[in-house]
Amino acid sequence: MLGLDVCEFGGQVLELLWLTVCYRGLLADKKDLRVEDEEDERNLNYVAPLQKSLEEIRQLDKDDQSLVKYKRTLLGTETMPAADPAVARVQVTRLTLLCDQAPQPITMDLTEDLSALKEKTFSLKEGVTYRLKIHFKVNREIVAGLRYHHVTSRKGITVDKASHMVGSYCPKEEEHEFLCPAEQAPGGVMSRGRYAVRSRLTDDDRNTFLDWEWNFDLNKDWSE
């Protein structure tokens, strides 16, 4: 497990700031959920908070110096140049599979033709522990409650479903990164073969920012 770094801490504080400023009610804590549990959660008449612009957030609670300091740290003091309204509010640029035992990281460029990615197959060694890293850029306004989902199937049968809370992020010129919890690949002769994965990134308003498919072969070794 990695320790809590500055970026993760800033993301958590931004999450609290967003809840403090924008949410009208107290929401339950959201942890990693299987997709089935997530669907149950979303059926509880949840209503997303009213969206507020960065400038509106900066102008709120000016007398609370502690909150003002947090806002300056997390949101900055300068207004970013106006982003092209045709550009998505969240741009998912890459998905990287990280494994200490791998010869090199496995990276998917999500800015290119996604149909071509669907035809490509990556190699994963059985039994290894790996983590997925999502790279994305936020434009114009804060995005609340980003969540990464994936469904893995083999020969048309679903074998795994997972959903991870990514968090809330403010816009900035640089990309954001999120490291998913560690997972272990299946092992054994019977588990080897081709797997299909469908991934997507959504937010609290149920917007889908990217939905893509990719494949991997589970092999005895990386080079197969």
Give a quick precis of the structure.
By secondary structure, the protein is α+β, with helices and mostly antiparallel strands. It is built from 5 helices and 10 strands; from the N terminus they run ααααββαββββββββ. It has helices at 6-22, 35-41, 54-59, 65-75, 114-119, and strands at residues 90-98, 106-109, 121-125, 129-138, 143-154, 157-169, 176-179, 183-184, 193-202, 208-219.
Walk me through the structure.
It contains 5 helices and 10 strands, in the order H-H-H-H-E-E-H-E-E-E-E-E-E-E-E. By secondary structure, the chain is α+β, with helices and mostly antiparallel strands. Strands 1, 2, 4, 7 and 8 form a 5-stranded antiparallel beta sheet that branches. Strands 3-10-9-5-6 form a 5-stranded mixed beta sheet. Strand 5 and strand 6 form a beta hairpin. The longest helix has 17 residues, at 6-22.
The percent range for helix content is 10-25%
Structural class: alpha+beta
Mean pLDDT: 77
Strand tally is: 10
Total number of helices: 5
Order of helices and strands: HHHHEEHEEEEEEEE
Stretches where pLDDT is under 50 for at least 5 consecutive residues are 18-44
Main sheet makeup: 5 strands, antiparallel
Beta-strand content: 35-45%
